[in-house]
Amino acid sequence: MEKLIPRLFKMPKQSFFLFGPRGTGKSTLLKQIYPNALWIDLLEPDIFRSYSSKPERLKEIVFAHLQKKTIIIDEIQKIPELLNVVHFLIEKKINKQFILTGSSSRKLKKTGVNLLAGRLLKKTLYPFIATELGKKFNLKNILTTGLLPLIVSANKPLDTLKSYIALYVREEVQMEGLVRNIGNFSRFLEAISFSHGSILNTSNIARECEVERKTVEGYITILEDLLLAHRIPVFAKKAKRAIISHSKFYYFDVGVFRSLRPLGVLDKPEEIEGPALEGLIFQHLMAWNSYQGEKNKIYFWRTKSGSEVDFIVYGEKIFWAIEVKNSAKVRLEDLRALKTFKIDYPESKAFFLYRGEERIKKNGILCLPCEEFLLKLNPNFFQDSKNF
After folding, report:
1. Which of 109, 146, 232, 336 suits a disulfide with 253, CB 3.0-4.6 Å?
2. At residue 388, does pLDDT exceed 70?
3. What confidence score (pLDDT) does residue 111 get?
């Protein structure tokens, strides 16, 4: 049996939600860490029918397994009513740890059920990051197939990736009745792939899909609820220049982006490779920030005059400005936006990430190979970065 790749995600000792898109390895990780847990898999048809018809059956099962200290309910969004039963059991102080996994928060929010606020932590598991893969991390391959554990472990990653997208559209969107017209939604998934790493313009996407703007806005919310995409806001704290107000859009995994982004004869490689690399950095920053307790916020910066920095990581101890370029050399014009940002925010630490092999410093900006940055990005990165 192949040895499982260790994850940086740390399991809380108390009860918690564990969210994450399908294929991120939630079940695999939990089975590895809690081999003796009472496991309730709501993806199993007979189990789903049993609990959907009688949610309070969970009480009977838990009290019949008092020796089990951990109860795991997989894909809790399938039966949100179970949350009320979990709440009851926690109130009874029966000394159990409940772990509730989910690949969507939409149905939980929509039904307005008790989300156990303050009683269960909310955690997220992301695709692999470079430090988890170590020597297995191959930047060139990853930029094509992504970092979903389901895809990384597949014999035919590209074929599995196509099936993965179809699975989500069929099971999470169509079967749950999240959209009325699955054809429109499928076109939307492709159309919005052109916005990956870019300012989000819902009007343009609506015209491309031939649907109303409100429909596109609803589709974007569905992607966010399914944890398949993220929007990041512009950094405007103590702004000294006129700043735009629109958000930037990213799919949660570079492989998913590449699978959805159509490639035509008129497309130049850099039109896809650049956003792919930028998205890879973004998904690493998201995972890194989450695994150390959401201590920072992730933004981008863009002035109305056109100066843009890809990522601003801002927190009590961290203030980074990060520019990403899919180039083998560092050109002075590539550093212009970072220099402008540093003028406005001299407290920030500026990083320029590129596809070269040298670590160099220009105009107070540390230029790092992307691979080096990604392989060093771990929960202790802040301490390590003091040496840069």
Report:
1. 146
2. no
3. 60
**Cβ contacts of residue 219 below 8 Å, gap of 6+?**
179, 185, 188, 192
Q: Which residue has the tokens 């980074």?
A: 320
pLDDT given at position 229: 95
Rounded to a whole number of angstroms, the distance between the first and last alpha carbons of the chain is 40
Q: Give the fold, CATH level 3, of 16-124.
A: Rossmann fold (3.40.50)
Q: Quote the CA–CA distance of 249 and 304 in Å, as a whole number.
A: 18
Give the CA distances from residue 28 to residues 25, 90, 127, 148, 182, in Å, rounded to whole numbers and listed in that order. 5, 25, 13, 13, 31
Render pLDDT for 31-48 as a digit per residue (tens, 0 to 9).
999 999 999 999 999 999
Size (the chain), residues:
388
Q: Report how far apart, in Å, the C-alpha atoms of 343 and of each of 238, 263, 347, 349 are.
A: 13, 39, 9, 12
Q: What secondary structure does DSSP assign to 318-383, as a single string?
A: -EEEEEE---SS--GGGGHHHHHHHHH-TTSEEEEEESSS--EEETTEEEEEHHHHHHH-STTHHH
Domain regions of the chain by residue span: 16-124, 130-385
Structure tokens at 312: 């601003």
